[in-house]
Amino acid sequence: MRALLIIIIVGLFTLPISVFHLLPERYLFDMLKSLEKRTNGRVSLIVDDFSRGFPLNIQLRGLKVSFKKRDILYMERAFLRTNPYMLILKGLPLKLRADVSGGMINLDVLLGDKSIEGCLEAQALSLKDIRASSFFNSFNDGLMYLRLCRSGNKNNGLVEVHNIRMKDLVYKGMVFPSRRITDMVASFSIDGESIRFKVVDIRAEGFNALFYGELKGRTLKGNLEVYTSAEEDLFRDFKDYRKADRIFIIPVKADIVRLLKK
Question: pTM surpassing 0.85?
Answer without folding.
Answer: no
